[in-house]
Amino acid sequence: MSIHLTHQGSCAVLQIDRPQVLNALSFEVLGQIAEAIEQAAASDARALVLVGSGEKAFCAGADIKELQGRTLLAQKFGAELGQNVMARLDRLPIPSIAVIHGYAFGGGLELAMACTFRVATPKAKMGLPEIKLGLIPGYGGTQRLPRLVGEARALEIIMSGRTVDAVEAERIGLVNRIVESGDPIAIGCEYAQQFTGFSRCASLFAREAIQRALALPLADGLRIESDLSTLAYQTADAREGMQAFVEKRAPNFKDE
Q1: What is the pTM of this model?
Q2: I want to staple 120 with a disulfide (CB 3.0 to 4.6 A). Which of 103, 175, 227, 240 is the partner?
Q3: Domain 3-196 is of which CATH architecture?
């Protein structure tokens, strides 16, 4: 197995273990990632941390040798497989954190962008270099990058295929934070702690309110927020949270 799913406290940890090929994404590996995501969703984990093995790369992208000499239909199915895996990660009911230590290119950056949050070490390098191969991103890069950094920056990064370092990535919003180098699992779990102490119900409603309304007019987005905030009030966690505030104590959320 090239994918390992373990648990560290309240976090599930998905590790890509192919350091000899810079953790490249073969179709088999994509299938294993999908299975690990489903297992994490079914567990009692409160966050999912994604890391790559070795010191050189989070994930250097698709396995290029596997993409050569395929039929048109096979290429389309391959793109849809990658997109479906990223969509599963995007829809995960708990927050996900990609720890980018080293390279995150092509499909590797697309995997990171499908996560809720991204943190990078100072030596991280990111990019979507498909244009240099006569290709374009196929696992969601042309759609998620503009939503993160804006249309103009996304066009420039994708159409030049250039590399973005950690400092620029933080400045333009591609990563949430630069962290000191260290054990990627520890980095991810520490970052996740700021999200894992709250009600899973409220956390999910908050994410849906933002994500579902991104491409909608403000009035439609406000209706989504109204509906989801109303649902949040109906949960046992909301009642517990408000009562704990009145009683000046820490809430005991039960995800109900």
Answers
A1: 0.92
A2: 175
A3: Alpha-Beta Complex (3.90)
